[in-house]
Amino acid sequence: MEHLSDGEAWKHFDSTFSMFASEPRNVRLGLSTDGFAPFAHYAQSYSCWPVIVTPYNLPPWMCMRRQFMFLSLLILGPRNPKGNLDIYMQPLIEEVTHFWEVGIMTFDIARKQNFNMKVAMMWTVSDFPAYGMLSGWMMAGRLLYPYYMEKTKSFRLKHGNKHSWFDCHR
Predict the structure, then answer these.
(1) pLDDT over 80 at 150, yes or no
(2) Three-class SS string for 30-61?
(3) What is the pLDDT of residue 4?
(4) What b/e sequence results for 22-41 when a residue is b if at least 16 CB atoms lie within 10 Å of its CB, and e otherwise?
(5) Residue 158 pLDDT grade (very low, low, confident, very high; cuts 50, 70, 90)
(6) Strands (E), 2-126
(7) Is 113 helix (H, G, I), strand (E, B) or coil?
């Protein structure tokens, strides 16, 4: 296991956005979401979707601590948000976009100076159904895996009339 800062995605991001990478105090975020039914044992249909934002440029022993996971949004309702997740997340998206483009004046207590901090949303962490809601990608049918697109080796089962990706994931 290694820290994300040692990974290829981080290094590629640094080479692509060198101005962002030149300021080590800029923040790199990850967003995670997944829904659950809080009253499942009582046969009530209700859905809860927490959206958690985590800063990833902390040291490895601090990244996944509870005090550095920020509950940014909580979507409650009788059903999951499906096609409306982007509507609920619009204020968060606008704020992160503003912090990416313009930044925000922040005080660095260690250096005792103000600086313009910028923010990048680098990752989303979710299961496949939540990934479909976050990205707007259809999570059914032949093109289920967006990485493969038309090169997918999926096939339709003869008698089940469903798509299968058996032994296609490697």
Answers:
(1) no
(2) EEEECCECCCHHHCCCCEEEEEEEEECCCCHH
(3) 83
(4) eeeebbbbbbbbebeeeeee
(5) confident
(6) 27-33, 47-55, 70-77, 104-108, 113-117, 119-125
(7) strand
